Fold each of these.
Amino acid sequence: MSRLKGITGLLAALTVVLAAAGALCGAVSGLSRDASLYGARSRETVRETMGLSSQEEITTAIGLDAQAQEALAQQIAEGMGRAEADFALESLNAREQAHLRDVRDLMLRLKSASKVCFSLAAALAVVIAWTGARLTKRRKTLLLGVAAGLGALLAGGLLLAAFLRGQGFARLFTGAHELLFSNDLWLMNPETDVLIRMMPQALFERAAADAALGALRLFAAVGALLIAIEGLVGGMIRRHLAEEDKA
């Protein structure tokens, strides 16, 4: 029985981690398809970071007026969700277009990873319902497992916070690009590339905060669903076992 408790607790912890990973991947990929990130939010961030006071000044800084940027933003956002998008956009040069294709491929992989993580978490919820069905202190075992999973996530979050405090967001941003991309297309020149002018570091910092918040919301929703799955399946299994014991 103690072995069964350990297995159930470990599976509960793994389910929490998988749900969190799926939520983060889903939130990031979803944010990449938000046109406001490349349009209105971009212009507002440029205005604030550069201390500009008019739309004309923002247009000069970015190289696109609001209407042209909004059209470009819609095209980028739509392309992030389509594997066949080539980003052959008039406002962007060949290097920028190639980088957007790389980003699109990454976002599609994150979307797929989110689905895989959620599917595995749901499958584990069913397994947990089965392994915990005969435990006398099932809820305590599950709570300990969930607490372990949340503790692991908290530890990871604290490590990330410590890194950001010591190295700064720019170092994290650079390291992530070096890890995720096999080329240097993400190294852009403000003199020639529109993307870096319309997406300063401050925009990515805000986007990262939005993605984290979105991931928390999605994690909470998925967590509630997993609890419902475990409760429903577990109840059916326990009723079946009770009927077998009576027979």
Note: The chain has ten helices and no strands.
Amino acid sequence: MREGVIHRRTDETVVECRLNLDGSGGFDVETGIGMLDHLFEQLAKHGAFDLRLRAEGDLERDAHHTVEDVGLALGEALDQALADRAGIARMADRTVPLDEALIHVAIDLSGRPYAAVDLQFAGTMIGELPTQLVAHCLESIAQEGRLALHVRQLRGENDHHIAEACFKALARALRDAVAVAEAETSIPSTKGTLTR
């Protein structure tokens, strides 16, 4: 079982994350930010991952530290679960619609963190989640997950739909990229490693 378990504690947040890449889409998520919970539930369900995520943060200030640290913890759990990344498909992309919104996500589990996120939200908040933190969360996942992540908004007017389609597209792309081919044990890189 490919699983990552992370306990992240700072003076600003406490985050516990358990991610099983070979799950069935089960989730148990509580971050204190309802919309953030919803996005990570999409990630688990549509990625067919099992995810348990708990976060307590300084929400009396704002959502920034909680969103950032949840993204970092999820990325770190992903990296841990992938281990040496042998046998994985490595690269994948998905385009996902949600009503009028259409989002394209391409990823490479290259071991090298990079994020290019191009989203245009109409408002500043989705529930208790600042819209500018959607991109920051995705960037945090890419940083600690050590993956190249490209997110493009092709269409979209409703901010909830745009954010949700992002995480659904990421989930589907991750599901494809982490898939292991039967009898495939090699590292999918000519340099022989994806860990450094």
Note: The mean pLDDT is 96.
Amino acid sequence: MTQIITVTNQKGGVGKTTTAAALVCGLHQRGAKVLGIDLDPQGNLGFNLGLDIGAGSTVYDVLKGACSIEEAIASTEYGDVLPSDIMLSAAEVEFTVPRREFMLSDQLTAVRSRYDFIIIDTPPALNVLTVNAYVASDGLIVPMEAEVLSLVGITQLQETIETVRSTFNPHLKVLGILINKFNGRLTLSKDILELAQEVAEQLGSQVFQAKVHRGVGVAMAPAHGQSVLTYQPDSRPAQDFQAIIDVVAGDRFALPKPKRGLKYISKFFN
């Protein structure tokens, strides 16, 4: 059964694209069939995964009906990608058709059965693109930095999640809050972790046990068209992401020797 997971937070700079790229790459490394979808007009997910942005059709063309989703999907060494570009920034104005919240979900019907996982990267905004991702998804992963403004973004996200649940997708789950750029030696990081756990409880979710620590490889990897998992696979951030992917992948796509003893949260997909 295909699992569709959206990486989301309305605040920018919290590691959404880095997380989405790591999920696509890490799941692909484990033998899963993966499609990454870039719903951010900046187009960074495709760039992170080595695509020549602007060389082909995009998710904008698909949603406009200018081409089929099959024609727009590009293959990379890390899995398939449905790329984006700046044209998608006009979505809020251009996409005014009835049932516009279901545009992505309807398009995915044609390819969903081909993949084990579909990972959606979203813009730092609560707009029609974000709502389309939520409507199409089984679960959400919410990255945040260990700082106060990032936590505020999550609390504001809660209302949108509840609206989508009550109106369009009652099965939507929050799989977990993922803390990026974590430093356990700082009092602020520890305080934010406690607050994040309280917010996660309100969302009926959890904070992922693994925290992604700071590392220069995370910032350098996109310049090489890679995820940190392939650019610096032995780095602390890469190992942190692998521990989170352990949770998402489950037993079917587990590594031969799991690096950390996290349990698969299968209840979120039931």
Note: The radius of gyration is 17 Å.
Amino acid sequence: MKILLDALGGDKAPASTIAGAIEALNTRKDLEIVLAGPEAILRPMLEKGKAPMDRVSFLEAKQAVLNTDHPSVFLKEKPDSSLAVAFETLRKDDSFAAMVSAGPTGALLTGTVLRIGRIQGVLRPGLLAVVPTRTGKVCHLVDVGANMDCKPEYLYQFAVMADAYLRLSGLASPRIATLSVGMEEGKGNELSKAAYELIKANPKLNFVGNIEGDHVLRGEADIVICDGFSGNVFLKSLEEGAYFIADLFQAAIKKNIITKFGALFQLRHLKKVKEPFNYASKASSPLLGAKKIVLKCHGKADGETLAAAILKGCELKEKGLLEQIGETLKGQEQD
């Protein structure tokens, strides 16, 4: 099993990617990792971490793609970047099970669309993200930024692909909902209403209807479908809201000596409250519908998160995610 890793992608790279690679290699003895990055820097780090070097190889790349780089031109302006080199290699080489990166989302989407392409029948790839819920489980939101302008057929396919992904991940009959401004049928804009009807018409999908933004966090659906614009706004608002509440709480417990003392007795319970948020931030996001498995990690991903993404890529390859999506959408033509 061979995984392609963008060794310079992410805020903590390459320390995080090296740590993730070593952990994954030690977990799976049949795993081989190819790192895109400067070998002169990466090799000593791997050797210091006692990585099994017989299962490690390198793709020489001199620089990283940054958040300040324009995603639509990085392939031309930074052809020697780790992400550009990784995409060019993945395009030509079918031996890789998956590619993993914590680099900029926009660049990852652009590279996937322009270099990798779509599974036959897929109209548009959809980026899936994980959000925590009150139940302690997570909800899968798609699309969260790959497609700003959507047609109802795109949203329908997002539902089909996300359903296939969750079933392969062990959820027998995932509940699917469409993000809207009301739960009643007929609520929403023209796009959401049309998508509602398409998803509802498929008897193989466990469609539960519309869901409002505040109900997503109540765990009332396993998959929430929306266009990339709405999904991205919702996701980023949720993330900042969580940070805002955390900052307010920290300020409150530091207010005086009494609140500081009381906080000492609550630390164990506070850690439990944070668990679903920690899980969501550590989950990798697949770009559903791409010809090859591409997994996106958060820019702040640590070694543990990247290791989990690498192993997830192996799992999805073994379970036949691409074949499952292709078979489900067989007969549908690309636009």
Note: The radius of gyration is 21 Å.
